[in-house]
Amino acid sequence: MSPTSHPIPTNKKETKPKMKSTKRSKRPKTSQYQEPNNLAFNLKQRDSSSSLRHFVIQPLGNLLFDPESKPNLRDTGLGTLFRLSDDQLLDILSLLTANELAVFSTVSKSTYVFSSHEPLWRSLVLSRFEGRFEFFHSWKETYVNTLVGKPTFVPKSLRISSFYSDYLFQSWLCANTEFKPEWLERDNIQRRRNISVEEFISSFEEPNKPVLLEGCLDSWLAIQKWTRGYLLETCKDSSFAVGPVEMTLEKYFKYSDSALEERPLYLFDPKFAEKVPQLGLDYSIPKYFTEDLFSVLSKDRPNHRWIIIGPTGSGSSFHVDPNSTSAWNAVIKGSKKWILFPPNMVPPGVHPSPDGAEVACPVSIMEWFMNFYEECKNWEKKPIECVCREGEVVFVPNGWWHLVVNLEESVAITQNYVSRRNLLNVLDFLQRPNAMELVSGTEDRVNLYDKFKNALDAKCPGMIDELKLEAQEKASKKKKLTFWESVSDSNSGGFKFSL
Fold first, then answer.
1. Distance, CA of 94 to CA of 114 (rounded, Å)
2. Checking phi first, is residue 215 left (phi over 0); if not, alpha (psi -120 to 50) or beta?
3. For residue range 295-333, what is the model confidence (pLDDT) as tens digits?
4. Burial annotation 468-495 (CB, 10 A radius, 16+ → b, else e)
5. What pLDDT digit, counting tens, does each position of 323-360 carry?
6. What is the spatial distance between Cα 396 and Cα 329, in angstroms, rounded to a whole number?
7. Fewer CB atoms inside 10 Å of the end CB: C or N, the chain?
8. Cα–Cα distance list, 150 to 130, 143, 257, 418 (Å)
9. DSSP state at residue 178
10. What is the Cα Rg of the chain in Å?
């Protein structure tokens, strides 16, 4: 779960490295996008009665086309604060209480616009009320209603024009833009149906390559049972992890049905089967992933399985799965767009720190698609892409960068695991000098290596030494040249002779 530039809870799977978003954020709106050089983005349709905002934020370039040549209200209404960039000002405002933010909003029309920035109110709601709220129209109105304890009249927003900000405009655009069809066209992942476990290991797990598996969830009860009604009834007495808080499914669905956000809150719970045992009985691990060596740790193992529920546009921005594990992700309802980059290819717009402990990336998935997706088309080695639909499973090899976005309301199960094929990678990861920062999913990060290795030696004596020997033999075979290779001239393709 990644910290961001200002305290807005994130929706990431519990992974390391820590994800740090670059400076940019958002605010929903409902009017048509009419920029002179229209970028061909289609806007989401929404009932205008659910929006209280009547001011229009325009990109800074539109100031050049203002026929009345009015000054930018953003600057004239901030006084000496106009010297601060938008993200710096929002960082400061994120330190204010709700009362202080409300007072600041009364200073000018410009301070009113900044004080209405929805992520500020989202942070206030989640920090003060945690999951004890019912979303109503906007985060600001939700805060007021929850504080008062009943629906409360909130005056409509001021009508404001001549406000120009690239930062705030892009946040609005990302929240209101439909996913472009051309972002779904490329599908170059290998797909397999009814392959043997041996073929999966030799063709994909051993060489560390992604694959989409079809037909291996046909026996899952969840595929037929997990409708919204079933989940609401089965889980009515339980709360689940949603970003930094716990929410009931009823409250979460009410939020996800009405919120229009750049980064929707994502239900991602690692203890779902303990909270609602029936959910754990409604699915089984596909045969390709049944070997999970972390199971020797029993209750001491790191978090490894999650139920994932999210609306259209929710998902996980680029990350590498925790503790050098591999993973599988099974879609029960809905569909997901996947983009995967191999370990030696960092996605554009993503900047990992040298030690791998932190990663800087765009604020939202939509922003990455808008600003970086087209760049990948010009690469000689292109990322792996696919749309994973109901009943399908994506295998994510260890070390692969991946981004996932829900194309519709989706329900999925994902699990991380350790097999013989990636055991040595996991052990190496767990004993790195900065393991305290890298290891995740457990409170005992420092001792996880020793616990895991000792449990493996007790359960499977000699396994680690055997795998190390196999790895050395494979490495030596790659390095050792045959006689013909040793005398071949790599430049000419002929032989070379020593005089």
1. 11
2. left
3. 999 989 999 999 999 999 999 999 999 999 999 999 999
4. eeeeeeeeeeeeeeeeeeeeeeeeeeee
5. 999 999 999 999 999 999 999 999 999 998 887 778 88
6. 8
7. C
8. 17, 11, 20, 49
9. P
10. 26
The SS3 of residue 335 is: strand
Question: Which residues contact residue 150 at a Cβ distance below 8 angstroms, ignoring those fewer than 6 apart?
Answer: none
Under 8 Å CB-to-CB from 29, ≥6 apart: which residues? 51, 53, 56, 57, 172, 175, 176
- Amino acid at the residue 115: S
Whole-Å CA distances, 405 to 59, 318, 390, 436: 26, 10, 14, 30
Q: Sort 196 into a burial class: Cβ within 10 Å, 0-12 / 13-18 / 19+.
A: exposed
Report d(CA 321, CA 129) in Å as an integer.
31
User: Model's pTM, two decimal places?
Assistant: 0.85
User: Which phi and psi angles does 472 have, rounded to 5°?
Assistant: -65, -40
Yes or no: say if 112 and 121 are a contact pair by the CB < 8 Å rule: no
The maximal CA–CA distance of the chain, rounded, in angstroms, is 96
- Render pLDDT for 280-295 as a digit per residue (tens, 0 to 9): 999 999 999 999 999 9
Burial class (CB in 10 A: 0-12, 13-18, 19+), 246: middle
Nearest-10 crossing angle of helices 448-459, 423-430: 140
Beta bridge partners of residue 384, listed in sequence order = 340
Residue pLDDT, tens place only, 66-92: 777 789 999 999 999 999 999 999 999
DSSP 291: -
Contacts for 394 with CB less than 8 Å, ≥ 6 apart: 189, 210, 211, 212, 213, 328, 329, 338, 386, 388
3-class DSSP assignment, residue 386: strand
Residue with tokens 């895991």: 452
Residue that is written with structure tokens 């061909």 in the block: 40
Tokens of 238: 């339980």
Structure tokens at 289: 């992933």
Query: Do 327 and 417 meet the contact criterion of CB atoms below 8 Å apart?
Result: yes
